[in-house]
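Mods, move this if it's the wrong board.
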Amino acid sequence: MAPSPLRILMVEDSPDDQALISRALADVGPMSVRVVASESALRDALRDFAPQAVLSDFSMPGFSGQRALEIVQEVSPDTPFLFVSGTIGEERAIEALQRGAADYVLKDNLRRLRPALERALRNASERSELAKAAAALRESEERFRAIAETTGDWIWQTDKEGRLTYCNESTRDLLGYRASALIGRPIVDLLLAEDRERVRSLYTQHFAERRGWRNDVSRWRHADGHLVWLESTAKPMLDASGEIIGYRGVQRDVTLRVKQAEKIEHLARMHAVLSSFGNAILRSRDLHALFDMTCRLLVEQGGFAGAVVSRRGSDGRLRVGHGFGDEALTAYLQGLGAIAPDDPAWQSLPSVQALASGSPRLLADFDEPGLPELWSCLGPRFGLGSQVSLPIGNPGWGVLCVWTGQGRRFEDEEIELLERLGGEIDYARKFIAQSDHLEHLVFHNQTTGLPSRTALHQELPIRLRHGTQVVGVADVDRFRYFNQSRGRGFGDQLLREFAARLQGALPPGALLAHPGDDSFVFSFAAEGDAEAAVSRVEVLLGECCDRPLLVDGELVRGKLHGAVLLAPEQAADGEEVERALADALAEAKARDRSVQAFTDEARRRAARRVELERELRDAAENEQFELFLQPKFESASRRLSGAEALIRWRHPQRGLVSPAEFIPVLEETGLIVDVGAWVRRRGLEISRRWRDMGIAGLRIAVNVSVQELRQQNFVAGCTELLAPAGGDHDLDFEITESMLMDDIHQNIGVLQALRDLGSRIAIDDFGTGYSSLNYLSRLPADSLKIDRSFVALLAQSPDTVSLVTNIVNLAHSLGLRVVAEGVEDEEQAKLLRLLRCDEVQGFLLGRPLPLEDFERSFLA
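Not the wrong board. Structure tokens:
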């Protein structure tokens, strides 16, 4: 049976925004959508349509989202309410969440709408289940009450002063007293001291008003000291003249009901904390804000008396850094200073024990034997009931301490949810730290810490404005040999040693960058002509290589090949500099020279590239290019899901030319722009051909180069191609992660425009670039493609398995699918399926094939 459509009520006055929102929810499944824009229409829809979720704009003419929220909470308080607006600020958004909105989504980031809606529906379902549990509890208690009326209830009578004149024997079971022992005693004496004054006032008030009471719940002290919750119902006893002479009533034990109700409330609060924690991560700019927000959530939403996060410093000592609740409690804990976990004086401290064991430490009572006086005083001094200390991280780097108020203990399920929160804190810490680190890596090489290619391209134009610069490259000879024979760590250390030598040899104020691999680029003010520059660089590189380098305890004789030019005379910008230096460096290596200037010979090589460019232009005009298709499959079912389009060149004399030979030339010359447009047109033609064959749902993905992405008319060209289809087509785009990070802000707009045209976006080679969590959460993408280098190591490296697991979990948490490329054996495919990877492609399942062969192999 088909599932019932999800009923969505939109409070929105803009037809365009209505369409955008509907499109953002297209993949949710069957939906029934009703749109209103006024209070009366909203009330009618809540009554007649009974929506399962409400999506509301914040500001509308004549009606506001805040008023809509009030009406929904009044009429249908259990229905999730989400703001979808372009005008709501952060303060208003937080206020809306505090007033009952489930979430808010900005209209320029509708990719968040689907996961936000699903989370709100899931939370509403959980609340519904809790309500059902509460209803079941009430029903159970009613059944229990009907039975207990004749057996277990305490039936009593008092005189007008409140002294007991009659009791049945149920007091023995309820309070541990024989009935005869209670006759003559004031009934309030059996109450908990904190409840006596309230009950005495209740008795006095009702006596004066000559009436009874029903279902009043209060706490009573059992003879053995434990608390019992009794529900009291009583009526006045009148004499013949109508005067009150006392009360007759019944006390029923509702301890279980009260405890279960408290448990439901506590668990509901904890679920609310966990639900809000995801938003806390996104709003927290750093760890300090994250920890402060966590403690605040635990107190304000979780209902705990206090919460603090202690962190282990570089000296191994624990320090209380963040807290919320009782300010005096936090100040007291901070006043304890640094706690050394290895100090015997602190061994019995709950936080230390939790950190040492890696497990939660429950302190049920502050009278626990062996507890240090400075800790046992917390209960009476600050009104605390119990404490749980939860280690964070593995190995532990911190402790989360949470306290209840007096008379309240932690539930087992509550501790489990707090443990889950501890795991979420650790996860958030890693990603915040990783985001900060990756932001740094955008401008610095990970191995040497020197400026990266991005930083070089920013700094070089500034230097050129101040005069001619000697710009050179130094390439480590036989680096691949060292890397393969000694290991990656040895190669990295060799690069760091050469970086240090170069920094020491370059003149003051020089720029030294490490764009990647085994090459360094440097720049300093020119003093003379090109010949003088070559001589100076020869001396500089000679100083770096005149003595062995000590690498991992081994003396290594290193050699540098160099190339040099004068800029801006010979190259005007960063990309032109890199191309020219690459040509000169290739000649230096071919002739085994230490330094090669960029010369006319290099220009002749460029002329030869022009000839290849001419051949490539002819190839485009004479239809020598072909699209090969490599299939993609659903990981779980092995069902064909689509294909990646790969360009091939069939030269009239040379036959198929390797993509490695001609694609770099296409990119260097800019021909990739026109060829890429042909690829998109051809890919769309193939997808339409398949539709005409009755094969629906197979999507074709084409790759986009950095040159295409930088074209101002790229989006316009895609619009001209795809707009006539009105979003009903099967052409998708794959763009590498590192390419996106070149200009992340502009590229976000490009990706959104492509998605608006009906295409899906895949981030290719994911894991090899520098995308931060902050940027990744904003990218308008549909899937991540795990780089083949990770897939190749999957069956041999536990660290790679862990990394791929984190990538899959991260992608799914952001509502993205995961595709693994380069799958070459069944073991890799099995592991990817177990890790919940959505799609796979690779030689195991199918090599790139011409169209006819592809259709014969996979579509026949």
